[in-house]
Amino acid sequence: MSSAAEIQELVDKIRALAAAELPSGHVVAFLRESQEFWEPEERELIEPIGTEYQAQSDELADRLAEFWGRPARVPLWPVLDRSLAGEDVPPLAGELSQFAVEVDTWRVGDRVVCVGVGHHDKELPIVLFAAVGDHRLDDETSPAVQSSVRQAVDQ
Q: How far is CA 129 from its chain centroid?
């Protein structure tokens, strides 16, 4: 588990990222990245590392809530389903849906700030990430997800 100082450093990085200029409209930053898992015995580490990274993501969400309020947890499977069906999806949501199942999100001005854990494939590293985009994720998903995000944000 990360120390309080390490978590604070990540909080500061995420807050700076949220305020930074985004030339391409969004950015995804890997805050932590595990080893790769090419050997069968290494794959035994996937679950404990994933659990550790999820705990850190939850801790970051708790700390960021002090600044931006409680996050909405947004599932990304609807975006992935739309993408696989050949539909156009917004770039940030599409990118995140390729390796993350869900993200904690905040609306910060006209931007969306996300924190989560992702894993592209069983051999590749697990990542703790932050993402910032010049648009809202709930505009990019199904009506059911939009409704659940609005309810979570309004509470």
A: 6
Q: Which domain holds residue 118?
A: 4-154
Helices (H), 69-104: 77-84, 91-97
Q: What is the pTM of this model?
A: 0.85
Q: Are 139 and 146 in contact (CB under 8 A)?
A: yes
Contact 50, 119 (CB under 8 A): yes
Q: How many domains does the chain have?
A: 1
89, 82 in Cβ contact below 8 A? yes
Give me 154's structure tokens: 């309004």
What string of pLDDT tens digits covers the 155 residues of the chain? 478 999 999 999 999 999 999 888 899 999 999 999 998 889 889 999 999 999 999 999 999 999 999 999 999 999 999 999 999 888 899 999 999 999 999 999 989 999 999 999 989 999 999 999 987 565 544 454 444 444 433 43
Tokens coding 42: 């290494």
Q: Give me 125's structure tokens.
A: 């590293």
Rounded Cα distance between 13 and 79, Å, is: 27
